[in-house]
Amino acid sequence: MSTTTTARAIIDLDVTGHRINRHIYGHFAEHLGRCIYDGFWVGEDSAIPNVRGIRLDIVEALRALDIPNLRWPGGCFADTYHWRDGIGPREQRPRIANTNWGDVVENNHFGTHEFMDLCDLLGADAYVNGNIGSGTVQEMAEWVEYLTRGDDSPMARLRRENGRDEPWKVPFWGLGNEAWGCGGNMSAAHYAEEARRYATFTHNHGENRLTRIAAGANEDDLDWTRVLMKSLMDCHGCTLYGNLPYQAISFHYYTHSGSGINTEDAVPFSDEKYYETMAYAADVERVVRGHVAVMDSYDPDNRVSLVCDEWGTWWNVEEGTNLGFLFQQNTVRDALVAGLHFDVFHRYARRLSMANIAQTVNVLQAMVLTDGDRLVLTPTYHVFEMNKGHQDALQLTAHVRDLPTTRVRGEDLPLISMSASTREETALISLSHLAVDADCTVSIDLRGRGATVSRARVLTGDDASAFNDAATPDRVAPRALDAVLRDGMLTVTMPPHSFATVELELEPEFSAIEREEVAS
């Protein structure tokens, strides 16, 4: 029998902060396992409904999330990928060995044109990750030209020969990936020089303006960020044309239960492992805060943004699947990891401009899983859908008080996490309740503006290990939540291990003069 705890919070609906960049809700598609092939790409001859070889039900599911951007082709794969292998007639493209993920041979049928077609179908911006590890400066520069130049340059002419007349818009460009590891095992100092050099030759063509993203740290390696920032700010002549060589620095953060990535099962797990996972997910705030502090010390004017372009849970692969394909089950526990991350990302919206969950289809903490012609929406998918109202909204500070905690590895873990935002005449409140065996009644004092509840939903399962599959696709899905708003006090009772959102309609905001006129 569960008990009931309580928590209190205050939200000032009339005091806004920084805008939450919609690109914080970005996604990631690598040539890894069944993410691209047998995921996004089924080919034009497939019996599965598709548009020019791209699986239609996946496109429709992701469009419902208002997906803002998609990162491709990696990941570790990016630093072995040579883009010319993936253009031209498909039957003439060379086969390549994917030595990073499963050591399989692939046919390059999904390349630059197919990726940009996918982005067009999704309504998403392209985030293309270039090859620094095994590529050349010229190769990367020509890829940018091929994609974005509109005149009769050599690469623009080659693009037209391959069937695309107009250039594409590519807002985001990655300068390699995990340079400290699979991207070259470089030192921070060496990579900083390489990043500046490659960035110099990735030009803006026509009206396309690149946000160049330097490959950043592994988790809390603040020294890596420090070296990149110092190299950038000490670069004499780098701002000769009014722009820094790169405009963002990334970091990666994978969640596990404390023993390391790829060491524990996605299901089943004990209560102890569940709480350790929640603690590790919540610790992303310490990591973000550290990188932001380093960047602030070199760049108080916020010219360089922070990007978390790989995040999510990383469990053992499911039994009977290829070890290099990273296919894992997705449970309520994973959904709560997502909820915790977004609360942190919202709080650091001043500096954090983008994040990309790893990965979108069939790999790690995926949005969707495919089983033949069947598609399964994961619990994590539902968190993205419930939270999409935060995209490009303004922060609202949630002061959480008197919340329950539990001890995890000698430290207190708060069992309630919350964030809120507003845009136009609406507000959205997100709540994560982490306790495995207790309800929690949350009372939120809404101040500054009148409001009414337009919708409240909750996501949970019979236990924290509940997941969706082809036989039971709606075992974990949003359902209505009772939310009582009386005299400015919003009250919801959250079941154990649950994620919830409350959508508000706000009353018009009057000026002081208008308030006096109404009162008279």
From TrEMBL:
Enzyme Commission (EC) number: 3.2.1.55
GO molecular function: alpha-L-arabinofuranosidase activity
InterPro entries (alphabetical): Alpha-L-AF_C, ASD1_cat, GH, Glyco_hydro_b
Keywords: Carbohydrate metabolism, Glycosidase, Hydrolase
Pfam families, sorted: Alpha-L-AF_C, ASD1_dom
Statement: the UniProt record of this protein carries the keyword Acetylation: no
GO terms under biological process: L-arabinose metabolic process; polysaccharide catabolic process
Catalytic activity entry: Hydrolysis of terminal non-reducing alpha-L-arabinofuranoside residues in alpha-L-arabinosides
Enzyme class, spelled out: hydrolase
Ranges of residues in domain Alpha-L-arabinofuranosidase C-terminal: 309-498
Oligomeric form and interacting partners: Homohexamer; trimer of dimers.
PANTHER family named in the record: ALPHA-L-ARABINOFURANOSIDASE C-RELATED, INTRACELLULAR EXO-ALPHA-L-ARABINOFURANOSIDASE 2
Assigned protein family: Belongs to the glycosyl hydrolase 51 family.
Protein name per Swiss-Prot or TrEMBL: non-reducing end alpha-L-arabinofuranosidase
The organism of origin for this protein: Microbacterium natoriense
